[in-house]
Amino acid sequence: MNNDKYVGLDTDQATIIARVDDAKGNFVMESAIETSASSIRQFFKGLEGTIHVAFEEGTQAAWFYDVIRPLVADVTVCDPRRNKLVHTGNKSDRIDAAKLTRLLRLGELHAVYHGERSIRGLKELVHGYESLVTDTTRAKNRLKAVFRSQAIRCRGQLVYNTQERKQWLGKLETAALSARASILYEQLDSLTKLRDKAYKAMITEARRHPAYKRLKKVSGLGEVRIAQIIAAVSSPHRFRTKRQFWPYCGLAVVTRNSSEYEVVDGQRRRKRNKQAQTRGLNRNYNRTLKAVFKGAAATAIEREPFKQYRQRLIDKGIRPELALLTVARKIAAITLTIWKKGEEFDPERVNQAVPGTGNK
């Protein structure tokens, strides 16, 4: 007898609506649970059979996963952007929970990776650092906006120099503008100190990871980029090959094809010279990883071995922007390989195979 139970959770800051169906899709029960670890554990301990759980990715998803995973057979944290059925028709907590339960039972949910609890600390530190970098950039832009509003040219980094701030403030005509700029300077100083502190904490944590030293030898990957890669990927074994890793990094080429076959003498055959049409890169991806590998490629092509690798691509007629994308894909593939297999980065192997050249 199949004793599987499928549980869909519509989570909220205060309460959780839980819908339970059996393996045939029959309604079993529905419950409102307080959003607390003790209440969640009590609910699942009261269920019998093999329990499968699903809920949407969100602010508390990692916490929910850590609480629920030890109590059930499996947990699916789904991507709400790829589960359109949940967002169509009437909407309420009970309806959403019911839809999640149905999709879970049918195997139609697109999962978001959760696990590797040992990486959770690095993830938090990377998020903190990235937020402070964004805030620092925003403060700088606001400061420059004050001077630009008075037609004062302030290109470059000199406007942020602590030794020249009095001169810059003296260029402002009114006391109000000067006071505003002074406050922005103080905000910038505070954010810079916090950013540097967050940077040190992040790098210290990243260096504890076994893959850090190997990834550090890959051209274009510095300390910050390595920390971001480890935090975002968690485990390289999530990806069987580079073909699965590239879409996650936003580096996969999307192709479209139709009318591939024709009937000749009563036999179906593939049309000759029927090639798939490219439609750019995939749009559903990890933004951090795409920025990391594109930035790594821009840095790596300034020196060997990737400088020669890029030039060989261009010599074969590949446009410079596509050559840079190919370098980013190459670095991503190398990163995945040496991380999974525990190998060392070998610069001599970079130029052994160039796409479109026939070199293997």
What does this structure look like?
- Helices cover 46% and strands 15% of the residues.
- The chain has 360 residues and is α/β, with parallel strands linked by helices.
- The protein has three domains: 4-106, ATPase, nucleotide binding domain (Nucleotidyltransferase, domain 5), CATH 3.30.420; 118-206; 219-252 and 286-352, no CATH class.
- Helix 6 (175-206) packs across helix 8, helix 8 packs antiparallel against helix 10 (287-300) and helix 11 (306-315) packs across helix 12.
- The radius of gyration is 26 Å and the shape is globular.
Mean pLDDT score, rounded? 90
Shape, per Cα inertia axes: globular
Largest sheet: 5 strands, mixed
- The structural domain count equals 3
Ranges with pLDDT <50 over ≥5 residues? Answer: none
Question: What CATH architecture of the largest domain would you give?
Answer: 2-Layer Sandwich
Descriptive keywords:
single chain, 360 residues, alpha/beta, Nucleotidyltransferase, domain 5, 3 domains, five-stranded mixed sheet, two-stranded antiparallel sheet, 12 helices, 9 strands, 15% strand
